[in-house]
Amino acid sequence: MKTTNNNKTWITAVVTAFAASLCCITPVLSMIAGIGGIASTFSWLEPVRPFLIGITALVLGFAWYQKLKPRAEMACVCEDEEKPSFFQTKTFLGLVTAFAILMLSFPYYSHIFYPKTSEKVIVVSSENIVEADFEIAGMTCKGCEEHVKHAVTQLPGFVSAEANHKTGKAVVKFDKTQTNLDRVIAAINATGYKVVKSEIKNN
Q1: pTM exceeding 0.70
Q2: Nearest 10 degrees: CA dihedral of 178, 182, 185, 190?
Q3: Which of 39, 75, 122, 170 is deepest in the core (most CB within 10 A)?
Q4: How do the residues of the chain divide into helix, strand and coil, expressed in percent and rounded to 5?
């Protein structure tokens, strides 16, 4: 019975930690797999992320308490002779804790999995550069920003892009002789995030 309870504890911790960062893991996986449209599938989890983090912390705290608390005296020494399985050791609980921390902090380093987006000097004339503002729904972390930026870098005539998940806005510069606003919107929407408003600042 005790082994079953231990298993349930670490499984719960792993599942909640993974779920807490699923909204940011999905964009990276979708980019790697080349399936851009699923990037924002789990963005609805973002509002409940603090609760999932709290549950993970409570479960792990309870697990460590159970593991470190003094053991009660046993009537028969033979009961204590059985060697616990690896899944009941402090080493395994430490690995579970480390994995949970990596998952919970994933939104803060997820952007490193994306190719660096840099400005491209490919425009024949600066008069052809267009700067457009976008309001985008569904971005929840830096990984989301990088996913949007990565999508527009694939367009012909791309010059530069900036995105901010906190404001839900992006700014894209492109050569209007090679692409247009509709194509930029289509590229962003193809990621799973949705452009709710767009405006060309200069033309």
Answers
A1: no
A2: -90
A3: 39
A4: 55, 15, 30
